[in-house]
Amino acid sequence: MIEVDWKPDKSSPIPLYIQIKEYIKEKIETGEWTVGMKIPPQRTLAQAWGVNRSTVVAALEELTAEGLLEGKSGSGTKVINNTWSLMTSTPPPDWNSYVQAGSHYPNLPTIQEINKAEFDPAIIRLGTGELSPDLFPREMMKQVFKRLPDRIDSLGYEEPKGLLFLREQLSGYLKTIGIEASPSSILIVSGALQALQLISLGLLQRGATIFLEKPSYLYSLHVFQSAGMRLFGLPLDEDGVQIKTITEQKKRQNASLLYTIPSFHNPTGILMSEERRRELIDVCEQEQLPIIEDDVYRELWLDSPPPPPLKAIDKNGLVLYLGSMSKTLSPGLRIGWVVGPKPVIERLADIKMQTDYGSSSLSQWAVAEWLSSGFYHQHLEEVRKELKIRREIMIDSLQRYFSDIATWSVPKGGFYIWLRLLPSLSIKELFEKALERGILLNPGNVYDQHATQYLRLSYSYASLADLEKGIFRLSEVIRQLIS
Length: 483
What we know:
Blueprint lengths: L15 H14 L8 E2 L2 H8 L3 H13 L3 E4 L3 E4 L3 H6 L6 H7 L7 H9 L6 E2 L12 H14 L12 H12 L10 E4 L2 H11 L6 E6 L15 E8 L2 E2 L2 H10 L1 E6 L13 H14 L3 E4 L24 E6 L11 E4 L2 H15 L4 H13 L1 H27 L4 E2 L8 E6 L5 H10 L2 E2 L1 E2 L10 E5 L5 H19 L1
């Protein structure tokens, strides 16, 4: 039995249970109390040290939690660790503190929940901004990959700006939409999102202000905020971003650039008019405000081609133009591009090389083949035809089930309908109740914290049957919440 020949100092500012804990810990660490030795009963220790039993219990519980003691009913408490085992079994690092210390903000909780739920095959995805698997061009893709072995000599790293053959094909493609861009002024990136990351790292100072439409896809990301930037929203109307606020706010906000999605805007579906585009270029030239034109939805027009890109009417190198295959062909290819002044492209290319040594060579060759073979043009025609059918099904379903509880505009292209709910309800509760009924939504407040009565509906992903079923089921959920 262990002899107890010590008493805690009741006049000390250190709590009694801490003194007791440290006393026992020292005895164990010095080897005086060895592994397997029994500790006297709690009541005995309390009497010997002149303290309450609860004080002893608190000390022993902490030592047990640290792995030094073990208490078993009926057999008392004994030493299970000593100096040598303590040295070889150091506690694991507190990874949670590392996670919280990271500089990149986590996704919004709703976005995290959406990202998880999207992989449930039973879910009807009414918010997903992606082409349906039903629209995947399987036969054309087979043909593309059959041709690649004759083209590819190596799958090593490509040059910093990306595969030259792909940039040559993109240069030709961009001419068809009015953009004159040599291969040297094009950078291949892993989707438009990487372009935004490179811009935030390579072109902007911490504390800079970014103008953008409100609502905007950019509010659902933390790419700029994590780099220390501030987002400032500009109002929209049916023709796009309102111009007058740019002049009013440029000096006040010390804005560094403007981010816009002029063609089939995410999330509202708005198509910026040609007149508004020219006004935007004019005012940004006057204010010396560079523009990021995110044009990833451009080719998804359903009624008639959109006006020329901002980049096509940019005569002073004001616009950085972003394009991608993610919306029109396949997000899994992870291929996008940035078009801009050569010094900017070279700066971004240098940062990209430091980040990932270039986008997938195989994906770059595949996209180049899509463009050079003519398959891409054929595929786009088929996608437009199918999206038009899907848009009509969703609009018809909304007219049948939502005419008294929501308003919306018919988009001229893209994926999205910006639905405004008329009854007042909790968008969080709607999201959760819809998920319980097997419907995955994109609530408006992830694109603008004040858009609490809006939903971003997408007709691009769910099957034709699920589109109608999902809209009907969603109307039932809403009517239950407001009844």
